[in-house]
Every structure is written in C-alpha cells, then in structure tokens.
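Entry 14. Structure prediction run on the chain below.
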Amino acid sequence: MITRQNENLPGMFFTAGKIQNMYEGKPVEHSEHPHVVKVQGVGGGEPIVLGTRIMVRSIVEQYQLGSSVDELLWDYPRLSPAQIYDALAYCHDNRNEMDRLLDEAIYEHWQPIIERMKDEQTKNLSE
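Output returned:
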C-alpha cells in the first residue's frame, strides 16, 4: 500500500485509498515529486498539489511575479513549505510542460480563439 506523509497534519499519512477518495475515485497519476500529482478532471489535468486542487501553475505564476515562499504560504495557508518548494521544483524539472501550461494560461493565447468563436456565433445567427 502506498503511503504519503501529510505535511499539514503531522503524523498523518495518505494511503492510496484516501488519495483516491480525495478526488472522488478519479485515477491519480503520481510524479517523481512526492507532493505533486495529476488527476484527470481536476485542474484540467494539470499538475496539482497532493491533497488539494491547487494547480502547480498557480504557485509558479505567483512566484514568477515576485511572491516569496513566505508570501505563497500566506496565500495558501493549508500548504506547507515542502509543498510549495516541491511545486517549484516540479516546474524546474518539467520545464517544457510547465512553459506550455503557462503560455496557455495567458490572455494572448485565448484571445484569438475567443474572437474566432464570436465570429462563428455571429455568422450562425445571421444565417
């Protein structure tokens, strides 16, 4: 049975079954980082912090904008320093994936798609 220490509750461990239950029975894909998983249907399948729905990308974006780890801990009081540092380490170890996710999260990525959808909708309404 796989167990993972729960940093938020010292002495508590997540079992494989508890991890599955956290995410309503959805399959959990573990990474080489103990605090980072992917769950289909949670956070769009992006890497998230284990035991939460907090996307690694959200932590990385704030860090890149100048937030310190202490400020991130303030913003995410349920996370431990180990979880924050592991999310940042995941980003560094999976640079291509994270760069793609960060690029897809910006307005400039979605703006042409939204405009195309608006144009199609307007065209369909006028027909």
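The CA atoms of residues 118 and 124 lie 10 Å apart.
Filed with the rest of this week's runs.
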